[in-house]
Amino acid sequence: MPALIPTIDEIAAEKKRRVLLLSFPGSGSKYAKNPIRKYVIAWLDVMGIPFKECGDDPSISGYSSYRGELFIDVKCESDDESYKKLTQFLLGADGDSKFTMISLSFYSPVLL
Q1: DSSP label of 104
Q2: Nearby residues of 70 by Cβ (< 8 Å), 6 or more positions away
Q3: Alpha carbons 20 and 18: distance in angstroms, whole number
Q4: 21, 27, 51, 80: which could form a disulfide with 31 (CB 3.0–4.6 Å)?
Q5: Are 27 and 67 in contact (CB under 8 A)?
């Protein structure tokens, strides 16, 4: 059944802060079966890090079907414990992603 989910830029505007988007390139409409996405969601649940489904930024990609993107509700600050856990989980010592099929993006709210 179709559902209306917020876009990452709408979430950034609502939160009035920089936010994180995890996307899973190549998953397309089969995102629910993506083992890496399932693993990340299970890890987020265990760690108690809140997340929710969201759409990509339509100003960049245009409006499209949901492809499994997740808004991760942590403050993007180096002293935030949840942010530290998340970046240690996702990124190697060199700053590159430990996972080849995950894209981590930051979005800042447009302040008018």
Answers
A1: E
A2: 21, 22, 23, 37, 40, 41, 51, 52, 53, 54
A3: 7
A4: 27
A5: yes
